[in-house]
DNA sequence: CTATTAAGGACAAAAAATATCCCTATTTTT
DNA sequence: AAAAATAGGGATATTTTTTGTCCTTAATAG
């Protein structure tokens, strides 16, 4: 069970977009080049963010993406769920229904304890991601990334932002 | 990102084995029949449990599986990890290494904040599963499952346990 | 000796992830 | 008005993972 690589891509792209000045847009092409990713496929991840309402887009030259909310209002969970989906990681195939001792039609209304426990763990994972904001990430990165690299990256992005 | 169905199978099988009297064994065949699962494939899940040391096996007629520890000493996490593996759900493909502004060979020693945050969420998921014992599950099931079905299932298993 | 079992290797089928390609409508620039 | 660049999205292909089957081997109980 491994998350799609698009999750990583989306998180990194949002981190970049968080640093974009008000009203400017960054294209798929620039984001793909910056991260060394296949442009067409990265585009699918960005479309997921767009469909989830996390980013705003414009068409045409100088078009692209910007965040739809302030980084302090955007959680990791929103980004992860946008590309990975909202379904639970444990799916119940209802194997208890096959119990040969069971009276037919019985015992299938509510999920059993196994499923509930697994779903609780799932929820703990989501809670953790829900409590990290994109602004938290940017803050950590700004401290950890060497300032010259940080600055050059910022300039690289600005040159290409429409 | 969805857990293998073998996770569900393994949990249900452990729940059954937890009710097995001391010193007796239940075969793959019986477990597969009880749950309506393909015997050969379920066998792979049970082999995973065996390799992880969670169950004990014997060969020959009347052979099969029993728990290697008391249900109170067996956690959900152990069972889940036995079949699903211990690797993290977020894998870092190190895309920051492609940053065109970066000085070559720089900034690749430690995982970045993105990975660390995702791994923390992973750990929260594991913590939750680590804190549920197989005995907890059995206790809940014994309350929730209709007593006649519970009793008949128990007898069904005993008839086939070697 | 025979029947039954777990273990495990080889292989096959199905599903999901990872792309690539191409067309359309829109918008900016020229 | 024309041209160029963009997001969106459908169709398709490739690769990897999951799911499942089949068969052989060694051990064990009766
Ligand atoms: S509800 Fe419980 S018993 Fe039924 S399939 Fe899900 S986990 Fe298994
Ligand atoms: S360490 Fe961070 S930057 Fe590097 S690939 Fe992993 S998530 Fe991305």
Describe the structure.
Two copies of one chain form a homodimer. With 162 residues, the first copy, chain A, is mainly alpha-helical. In chain A, 54% of the residues lie in helices and 5% in strands. Chain A contains seven helices and two strands; from the N terminus they run H-H-H-E-E-H-H-H-H. In chain A, strands 1-2 form a two-stranded antiparallel ribbon. In chain A, helix 1 (5-18) packs across helix 3 (39-51). The longest helix of chain A has 18 residues, at 113-130. The two termini of chain A are 38 Å apart. At the A-B interface, helix 1, helix 2, helix 5, helix 6 and helix 7 of A face helix 1, helix 2, helix 5, helix 6 and helix 7 of B. Bound molecules: iron/sulfur cluster (2 copies). The site of one iron/sulfur cluster has 9 residues of chain A, from helix 5. Chain B binds a DNA duplex (30 and 30 nucleotides) through helix 3.
Please supply descriptive tags for the structure shown above:
elongated, binds iron/sulfur cluster, DNA-binding, mainly alpha, two-stranded antiparallel ribbon, 162 residues, 5% strand, homodimer
What does this entry show, briefly?
Chain A is 54% helix and 5% strand. The radius of gyration of chain A is 21 Å and the shape is elongated.
Give the CA-based shape of chain A: elongated
Please summarize the sheet with the most strands of chain A.
Answer: 2 strands, antiparallel
Total number of strands of chain A? 2
Q: Largest interface: which pair? A: A-B, 61 and 61 residues
State the order of secondary-structure elements of chain A, H for helix, E for strand: HHHEEHHHH
The secondary structure category of chain A is mainly alpha
- What is the assembly state of the chains in this entry? homodimer
- Give the overall average pLDDT of chain A: 93
Strand content of chain A: under 5%
Helical residue percent band of chain A: 40-55%
């Amino acid at each position: 069970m491994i998350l799609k690589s698009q999750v990583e891509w989306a998180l990194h792209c949002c981190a970049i977009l968080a640093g974009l000045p008000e009203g400017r847009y960054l294209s798929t092409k620039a984001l793909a080049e910056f991260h060394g990713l296949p442009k067409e496929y990265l585009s699918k991840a960005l479309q997921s963010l767009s469909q989830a309402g996390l980013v705003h887009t414009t068409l045409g030259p100088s078009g692209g993406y910007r965040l739809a909310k302030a980084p302090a209002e955007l959680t990791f969970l929103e980004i992860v769920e946008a590309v990975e989906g909202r379904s639970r990681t444990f799916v119940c195939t209802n194997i208890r229904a096959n119990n040969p001792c069971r009276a037919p039609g019985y015992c299938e209304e509510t999920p059993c304890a196994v499923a509930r426990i697994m779903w609780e763990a799932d929820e703990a994972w989501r809670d953790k991601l829900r409590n990290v904001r994109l602004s938290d990430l940017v803050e950590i990165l700004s401290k950890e990334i060497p300032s010259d690299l940080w600055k050059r990256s910022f300039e690289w992005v600005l040159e290409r932002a429409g």
